């Protein structure tokens, strides 16, 4: 049994992953951004899930969650699932929060970051990026950045699996009812990477789609770009990895 945090688990892919991991016998920590959404997680809490609450647009809330988790039994994996499609929260939620949570959580645990096929149209440039969400952010850029973060962690933390997952364009609230991909397959790779003892699931530095490794945007494995991104996020948050 593993202890696994799934961020953004109030609905969509995060909730599906949390439910499946609970059903498989794992200890799951679920996350909601506020108390109203947390109330909807009560069925999972009743099944034994632990709950943390905090808005990922608020860096102090991310720090509080990290401190709460550091005072609890250690995690075996973190699925960085929380994300938004558009608006000012894109960079704070999709990039800054997973970076900060990764930097603050103690211990060695598997890292799984939710990417997207949209990352291929992201721009590998940090010029003028609004990390604080004062204006609308680019979803494609944010997914390129978080996919690069996953690859950088694989390089910097050998022995700790760190991977990015493209779940596909699935019919969630974010993806819309007409999305053509498979919702069930959309969350299975995250669970596999977080908990499986399959040798492939224990590899690192991958960009995965339905349990198959694919080549990501060329910038993802560019070590110079990785280091620039980590430096920018460390400066922005005051917290280095």
Task: Provide a quick synopsis of the model.
Helix content is 39%, strand content 14%.
How would you describe the overall organization of this protein?
- With 241 residues, the chain is α/β, with parallel strands linked by helices.
- It is built from eight helices and eight strands, in the order βαβααβαβαβαβαββα.
- An eight-stranded mixed sheet has the order 3-2-1-4-5-6-7-8, sandwiched between helices.
Alpha-beta classification: alpha/beta
Write down how many β-strands occur, each being a DSSP E stretch of 2 or more residues.
8
Q: Tell me about the largest β-sheet.
A: 8 strands, mixed
Give average pLDDT, whole number. 94
Indicate the low-confidence ranges by residue numbers. none
Separation of the first and last Cα atoms: 28 Å
User: N-to-C SSE series?
Assistant: EHEHHEHEHEHEHEEH
For the CA atoms, what is the radius of gyration? 16 Å
Which term fits the overall shape? globular
Proportion in β-strands: 5-15%
User: Order of strands in the sheet with the most strands?
Assistant: 3-2-1-4-5-6-7-8
- The helix content, as a percent range, equals 25-40%
- Count every helix, treating DSSP H or I runs of 4 or more residues as helices: 8
Task: Give the helix/strand layout.
Elements: E1 3-6, H1 12-23, E2 27-32, H2 35-39, H3 42-46, E3 50-53, H4 59-70, E4 77-80, H5 90-104, E5 110-114, H6 139-156, E6 162-165, H7 183-195, E7 207-209, E8 212-214, H8 223-237
Parallel strand pairs: 1-2, 1-4, 2-3, 4-5, 5-6, 6-7
Antiparallel strand pairs: 7-8
